[in-house]
Amino acid sequence: MAKLEVEILTLFPRMIAGYLEESILGKARESGLLEVRISDIRDHAAGKHKVADDAPYGGGAGMVMKPEPLTEAIEAAKARLPGALVVLTSPRGERLTQPLARRFAEHGRLILACGRYEGVDERVMAAVDTEVSLGDFVLTGGELAALCVVDASARLVPGVLGNTASAEAESFAGEDGLLEHPHYTRPPEYRGMKVPEVLTSGDHRRINRWRRREALRATRDRRPDLFASLALSESDLRLIDAGDDEL
Ligand code: SAH
What is the pLDDT of residues 173-232, one digit of tens each? Predict the structure, then answer.
């Protein structure tokens, strides 16, 4: 996983460009850890008017993306990125999760196809390896989903985050599958709310136990589904109910 190479295929390239130019992802591109090319599907549409969509067979509302422009855009991208995984954004796809982002980052080469309108002609699937969804809701297009895939995958490439440890301690990422503990920064008191005393104690053993306890509690209270799937140790089960003086 030395770097991540991505090509995004969209009918609306300008929607995507800005997000990938700023902050951590912008820096990752400058340093060569992330390479992103944004290609306009319309460049592969035929005729003077470059039409990329048409009415659905069988009738009904909306338009469907024609099979030829997107299929040919995928093929052109594959020529540039041999071995790339071709991912179509789609509400019927596999849900994007931290483990899936890790698989994408490890694969190293992705072609992300963004649907629009009512979706894409089913025959495009012959050129697609897998479909990915952000969740059980319907967007107007796949651009946000493609950006989520790039963002979540790129930050797992070693060196993209300044501190590699920070990617590992995060929600869902750890082997333990816990949500993350809360964070505090200065000032020590804000509107009467104080930073927990343990965090300013300088005692790293206690700090680690406080963080672990808070991660356990957050997962239990906010994501009982995740919590139920954990095989917790005896010491975690004791820690979750421990008071600050027992840390
Ligand atoms: N008619 C389709 C929705 C099409 S939305 C249906 O009812 O399932 C248009 C495009 O937006 C899709 O082709 C897909 O690329 C993208 N999209 C919409 N919702 C999405 C989601 N939850 N996750 C990922 N992509 C999505």
Answer: 555 789 999 999 999 999 999 999 999 999 999 999 999 999 999 999 999 999 999 999
Identity of residue 56: P
For 13-115, where are the E strands, in sequence order? 34-40, 53-54, 64-65, 85-95, 109-113
Q: What global pTM score does this model have?
A: 0.94
Average pLDDT of 3-12?
98
What whole-number distance in Å separates Cα of residue 92 and Cα of residue 105?
Answer: 22
The size of the chain, in residues, is 247
Would you say 74 and 113 are in contact if contact means Cβ atoms under 8 Å apart?
A: yes
134 close to ligand 1 (CB < 6 Angstrom): yes
Closest CA to 105 of 31, 161, 143: 161
Number of domains in the chain: 2
Ligand 1 atom nearest the C-alpha of 117 is 9
Mutate which of 128, 139, 143, 148 for ligand 1 pocket (most atoms within 8 A of beta carbon): 139
Nearest residue to 210 (alpha-carbon basis) of 186, 237, 242: 242
Q: Return the number of other C-beta atoms located less than 10 Å from residue 227's C-beta.
A: 19
Q: Are residues 107 and 180 in the same domain?
A: no
Q: Check pocket membership of 119 for ligand 1, CB cut-off 6 A.
A: yes
Whether omega before 67 lies within 30 degrees of 0, making that bond cis, reads no
Q: Does one domain contain both 49 and 146? A: yes
Looking at the domain assignment, is residue 167 inside a domain? no
Give the end of a domain, one of 121, 154, 187.
Answer: 154
